[in-house]
Amino acid sequence: MNSERLVQIERDILGKNNRIAADNRTRFVADNVLVFNLVSSPGAGKTSLLVRAVSELKRSRPIGVIEGDQQTSNDAERIRSVGVPAIQVNTGKGCHLDAAMIGEAYRRLPLLTRGILFIENVGNLVCPAAFDLGETCKIVVLSTTEGEDKPLKYPDMFAASSLMLVNKIDLTPLLAFDLPKTVEYARRVNPKVEVLTVSARTGEGFGALYAWIDRQGRIKDAPERT
Amino acid sequence: MHEMALCQSIIEIIEDEARRRSLSQVRSVCLEIGTLSHVAPEAIKFCFAVVAARTIAENAALKIVELPGGAWCTSCSKSVEILRRGERCPCCGSYQLQVTTGEQMRVKELEFD
């Protein structure tokens, strides 16, 4: 074998995405914007949750939303109908948003200084876990109709998320949903994950969610510990 | 599905390396994939063949080295090997594991004609 033709390159397959994500993150920090990447399976209630949250949060700070779906701009229209700017990204056959799509969409939003950018990822508990978008953190939404063992079935996503939002908590009396078991399973794959329960329909739990969001801003603003 | 996107990235890396070395045909590609990464080696093998068609990596042999998963158990303060997320610590049975290795997805080595 000709050793000159055998080359060690050791290059990260996600290197290009990660470089663009790092650029996005630098821009978000420079603009003083908190960025939350919402992930879930289809139908967990990400858009309903966002519609309620942005309607309330927009009173106190600039808010923008990037919506990812394979097709349609229905979700962006739902966000715009409450007076919040939203960019729809259609991934076509793609199953996830990548960092380049977010960089491009962010440029098309108004400046969100000291505000929040919500990214609603494509409804898919597998693929979006691999792609850093430059977000402050990922929030995984799990609804009470889905079953307790989702964190064990799709561990990568729950491991990648800082917060698990258990949505449709108002339906619990109708379901055999075991919240402590769900939390236990989520913490098996991610001992540090925080958990909040909400209902996008009734508004239950949103005060605690806003307090959590404000805490992320304070963590971000705190001087780095050495 | 994201395996297709990852294979596209692999091809981009190969084409970039070939261009920089003025080489035109790749004979083999060696990947390192951690068992706790976001892909299964079988899925990568399948997608790579599809994505490599009509590129300089067409017909290239694909070799995948699987790297074991490792974690630090904060309960018993030991480094342990794990096969998947959500497992108990093999030493003390706790779930307080912080993954330390096994998430790699790298193009390790290329062999050119």
Topology:
The complex is a heterodimer of chains A (226) and B (113).
Chain A: E1 6-12, H1 15-30, E2 34-39, H2 46-57, E3 63-69, H3 74-80, E4 86-90, H4 99-107, E5 116-120, E6 137-143, H5 150-153, H6 155-160, E7 163-167, H7 179-189, E8 194-197, H8 206-221
Parallel strand pairs in A: 2-5, 2-6, 3-4, 3-5, 6-7, 7-8
Helix pairs in contact in A: 1-4
Chain B: H1 2-21, E1 26-34, H2 41-52, E2 61-67, E3 69-73, E4 78-82, E5 97-101, E6 105-112
Parallel strand pairs in B: 1-2
Antiparallel strand pairs in B: 1-6, 3-4, 3-5
Briefly summarize what is shown.
Chain A has 226 residues and is α/β, with parallel strands linked by helices. Chain A has helices spanning 15-30, 46-57, 74-80, 99-107, 150-153, 155-160, 179-189, 206-221, and strands at residues 6-12, 34-39, 63-69, 86-90, 116-120, 137-143, 163-167, 194-197. In chain A, 36% of the residues lie in helices and 20% in strands.
Structure commentary:
The complex is a heterodimer of chains A (226) and B (113). Chain A has 226 residues and is an alpha/beta fold. Chain A is built from 8 helices and 8 strands; from the N terminus they run E-H-E-H-E-H-E-H-E-E-H-H-E-H-E-H. Chain A has a single domain, classed as Rossmann fold, CATH 3.40.50.300. Chain A has a 7-stranded parallel beta sheet, sandwiched between helices. In chain A, helix 1 (15-30) runs parallel beside helix 4 (99-107). Chain A is globular and about 65 Å long. Chain A starts with 5 loop residues before the first strand and ends in a 5-residue tail after the last helix. The model of chain A has no long low-confidence stretch (mean pLDDT 94). Chain B is of the alpha+beta class and 113 residues long. Chain B has a domain at 2-68 and 101-112: hypothetical protein PF0899 fold (2-Layer Sandwich), CATH 3.30.2320.50. In chain B, the strands form 2 sheets. In chain B, strands 2-1-6 form a 3-stranded mixed beta sheet, covered by helices on one side. In chain B, helix 1 crosses helix 2 (41-52). Chains A and B meet through strand 1, helix 1, helix 6 and helix 7 of A and helix 1, strand 5 and strand 6 of B. Strand 1 of chain A pairs antiparallel with strand 6 (105-112) of chain B, so a sheet runs across the interface.
